[in-house]
Amino acid sequence: MLLGKKRKIGRMIEEISVGEKLEVTEKIDDRELLLYLGISNDNNPLFIQHDYASLTPFKKPIVPQIMLLAIVTGAISKYLPGPGSSIKKQEVTFLNPVYHYESLHFAFEVSDVNKQDHEITVKVEGENEEGTVILNGQFVVCPPYPTKPLTKTTSFENF
Asked: Are 66 and 36 spatial neighbours (Cβ–Cβ below 8 Å)?
């Protein structure tokens, strides 16, 4: 239950401006892969079987694209604009495969702030450790709204 607990909320739309940037680096390890595969029940051999993957143009197992998307959406909900935000629309292109154990770098930039519709547009580009672009994307995000008290403080004004 949230009553009485202070929760840090992300930045309001008035606090966000075009050109703001965020950089996030993540490494894909066995732990993350196994957690994803266990939760999703995704048993695609391209993600986990070296013998199968060696027969494909990829030559070795790749990271599921949805895991890359989770890194990006997680950064939006944790940092830009942060907790309390909601993604309204996403357009992502996966340009190159990501292999197990790679370190990835994601660069985010606010490209539009629309106060009338209460949304911002965040562009993202992801690269692997060799500098190869792995994904491009654009997200329309609803920043958090100001919170309102759960109880009225004016209920006893006439006393």
From this structure: yes
